[in-house]
Amino acid sequence: MKECYLGIDIGSISTKGVIIDSQNNIIKSRYIWTEGSPIKAVKKLINNLKENLDKNIIIKGIGTTGSARKLIGLMLDANIIKNEITAHAIGTLTFYPNVRTILEIGGQDSKIILLDNGIITDYSMNTLCAAGTGSFLSSQAKRLGVDVEEFGEIAITSTNPVKIAARCTVFAESDLIHKAQVGYDKKDIIAGLCKSIVLNYLNNVGKGKKIYSPIVFQGGVSKNKGVLKYFKEILKEDVIVDPNSHLMGAIGIAILARENKTNKIYDLNIADIKFETIGSECNGCSNNCEILKIYRDNKLIDAFGNKCPKGAIKS
Questions:
Q1: CA pair distance 12, 206, nearest whole angstrom
Q2: For residues 121 and 114, what is the distance between their CA atoms, to the nearest angstrom?
Q3: Helix (H, G, I), strand (E, B) or coil at 122
Q4: Exposure pattern of 138-167 as b/e (b: 16+ CB <10 Å)?
Q5: What fold is seen in the domain 103-241?
Q6: CATH homologous superfamily for 2-89+250-259?
Q7: pLDDT value at position 169?
Q8: pLDDT band at 313 (very low <50, low <70, confident <90, very high)
Q9: What is the pLDDT, as a whole number, of residue 311?
């Protein structure tokens, strides 16, 4: 039997999954939309990963990361649950051991990770505003009547990018509409949006950070050739995009699952398991905490949200 490890990165926009072997080879991978339901998304993801999977493969570890990592970790009884900073760093260092800077732009958040000799020395994430993220880019593409997959290809054909105010989604949309109405060429507007995303990232997430090469760019937006072009131009450095840059968080957490493995063999037949969450308000004290109760096959397995022991009562 071949021992393998499953890593799942559950974001607000997309859910990524990989199965790796002991040499970090990717056996299977999937990238799907979360669509507001991480539980349904993960069930769909695992069913996709199981399809035509070699029967000699056994899963000896499961790791979860991303915004819904704790919930999905409970669902799958994961042997390790870690934040995105750690997962992305481990995944990137495995393939680029000399990396000094990781630029990451996902669907609704972005982050920068600084490293020295394989150790994280600093990091930063975006604020609550989604300006300059994948969802922002997708919404602007739709407004312009362009497929987001073609956005980057169109951007690199422009030699005169329009200046777009991208520090705020509301201002950016207003600016974009104005530029379109006064007659600017669509390709120049698209290039301007790509450039504004880079400037917003560097002035917000990367503010005050010293960016050293080698630089690795990852997350779904790393596939946008226009954004990559302006990162290279503005930083005046080469920027590496791995073919699996959109999966790096899932790869990293799969590697950590292997390092933290137990003697357990995981069953991926979860389609028929009933898994639900029920929200309630605890009135045990003046905090009135919102408690999220987690049920598996109608059995309460955990509860989140309490700020004091009273809210931890599992009933």
A1: 22
A2: 6
A3: strand
A4: bebbeebebebeebbebbbebeebbebbbe
A5: Nucleotidyltransferase; domain 5 (3.30.420)
A6: ATPase, nucleotide binding domain (3.30.420.40)
A7: 62
A8: low
A9: 66
3-state DSSP call for residue 243? Answer: coil
DSSP string across 180-238: HHTT--HHHHHHHHHHHHHHHHHHHTTTT----SSEEEESGGGG-HHHHHHHHHHHTS-
What confidence category does residue 230 fall into, taking pLDDT thresholds of 50, 70 and 90? Answer: very high
Tell me the one-letter amino acid at 118.
G
Asked whether the predicted pLDDT for residue 112 surpasses 60, the reply is yes
Radius of gyration of the chain (CA): 21
For 135-188, give the DSSP string: HHHHHHHHHTT--HHHHHHHHTT-SSPPP---SSHHHHHHHHHHHHHTT--HHH
Q: What angle do CA 129, 130, 134 make, to 5 degrees?
A: 170
At residue 273 the predicted structure's pLDDT band, cuts being 50, 70 and 90, is confident
Give the list of residues 6+ apart from residue 37 with CB closer than 8 angstroms, or none. Answer: none
Burial status of residue 304 (CB atoms within 10 A of its CB: 0-12, 13-18, 19 or more):
middle
Q: How far apart are the first and last CA of the chain?
A: 42
| In contact, 61 and 255? CB cutoff 8 Å | no
Work out the average pLDDT over 189-202. 87
Q: Give phi and psi for 85, each to the nearest 5.
A: -60, -50
Where are the chain's structural domains? 2-89+250-259, 103-241, 275-312
Q: What is the pLDDT of residues 56-81, one digit of tens each?
A: 999 999 999 998 899 899 889 899 99
At 293 the pLDDT is 84
